[in-house]
Amino acid sequence: MRDTQGKRLEGATVEIFSQIKNGNFSDIVLSQKDIDFVIYGRNSKKILAASNSRIPLLPPVTGVQGYFLKNQDDGEKRTEILYLCRTYEFSDGRAICIQTSIPAEKEISQILFSIFPRSLLKVLIPLLLFLFVTLGLYFIVLEKKYDSQKEFIANVSHELKTPVAVISGHADLLRRHGKKLLEKDESRFDESLELILKESENMTKIVRNLLELTRLENRLTKPQKEKILVQEFYREIKEDANRRRTETDANILIEIATFSEDLIINTDKNLLHQIFSIAIDNSIKHSKAKDLRITLGAEKTGRKTLLFIRDNGEGFSKEALKRAFDRFYSGDKSHKTGSGIGLSIVKSIARLMGGKIRLENDSGAVVKIILPA
User: Fold this and answer.
1) CB 15 within 8 A of CB 51
2) Which of 155, 198, 265, 326 is the most buried (most CB within 10 A)?
3) 265, burial (CB in 10 Å: exposed 0-12, middle 13-18, buried 19+)
4) Alpha carbon distance 185, 187 (integer Å)
5) pLDDT for 18-33, tens place per residue?
6) Strand partners of residue 372
7) Within a 10 A sphere around the Cβ of 320, how many other Cβ atoms?
8) What whole-number distance in Å separates Cα of residue 35 and Cα of residue 72?
9) Cα–chain-centroid distance for residue 369?
10) Measured between alpha carbons, how far is 368 from 373 in angstroms, rounded to an integer?
11) Tell me, what DSSP letter sits at residue 24?
């Protein structure tokens, strides 16, 4: 504030001197009405012109200076002003001083201290600081959500672009040459139809997973808790995985580790089944082991129950350990093994069930699910 007022005083001084002609000081009019001035002889100290008789001659200074004026009505009260003195010489050798002044604008802290008692300010200032920090953090979160939304839209576009391009290309091929292909090369006709169906299924899966993820993140899915015997649940998971296992050359063994036959958890069975299905599919898709072994285990730790899926593959890369739960992140850069939404769904399900998910490396990849007892 003081810098701004100082510049105004400097400008007023220049404006006053420009209006002085032939030693005439009576016709000076300032455009800035809140600024007072006094013109006096440099040596004689005689006042030649003044806009306010209450402003005395003040000690000469090189820059802007503060000064407290006594209040004429109440001698104990003082008003702070800022003033500036500039010396000018005429061609005949005379020298004058132009003193300009303006009421000092108070800083915010001064205004607060003049309005509120100190005891109240001791409470108000921490509250104001807390509010300021909270608003700052809120805007940071908003910015991150905006960036996340932009990234999400870009990722969706990227994931859908490939199947759309394949479907469009083969549909155009069949439109132009479908009859000829049926007559001369029926296998190529069938191949195009199969690719269209396959990519349509991929698109359907992406959209279905996105809808599922949206429902989970917005807590539109309500967990239906029931008591589950973990050993029995694992046997069902093993049978289901063996039924679904196709299109892979790996010799896959799913085994159940040794733990208490009586271990029971109270949670949503269908949601938990979904977590294990996704985790096992990920092990099968991403592992390069010729003889893949997937182990299902569990243990009770205090008030928590730890369930885990461990394989004997290469484990998670450093990048995967950091980003595996990001939507559309896939350790396979070609995206041939999935859309990268699976572990995002797993994390959302675990959170909905009141649990946590951890990824580790321990002689292979390990997915740990920690659930309330």
Assistant:
1) no
2) 265
3) buried
4) 5
5) 888 767 787 888 888 8
6) 304
7) 18
8) 19
9) 27
10) 15
11) B
Rounded to the nearest 10 degrees, the angle between the axes of helix 230-244 and helix 269-286 is 50
Q: Mutual orientation of helices 118-184 and 186-217 as an angle, nearest 10°?
A: 160
Q: What is the pTM of this model?
A: 0.51
CA distance 295 to 83: 83
Structure tokens given for 274: 């979904």
Other C-beta atoms within 10 Å of 357: how many?
Answer: 19
Give the separation between CA 28 and CA 31, rounded to whole angstroms: 10
DSSP 21: B
Q: Which residue reads 């155009």 in tokens?
A: 172
As a 3-state breakdown, the chain gives helix, strand, coil percent values, each rounded to 5, of 45, 25, 30
Extract the tokens encoding 351: 């959170």
What tokens appear for 79 in the block? 């008003």
CA dist 189 to 140, 163, 166, 169, 178, Å?
54, 18, 14, 13, 7
**Pick from 278, 262, 246: nearest CA to 348:** 278
Structure-token pair, residue 170: 């083969």
Closest CA to 365 of 343, 350, 349: 343
pLDDT in tens, 152-211: 566 566 566 767 777 788 787 777 777 777 677 777 777 878 878 877 876 777 677 677
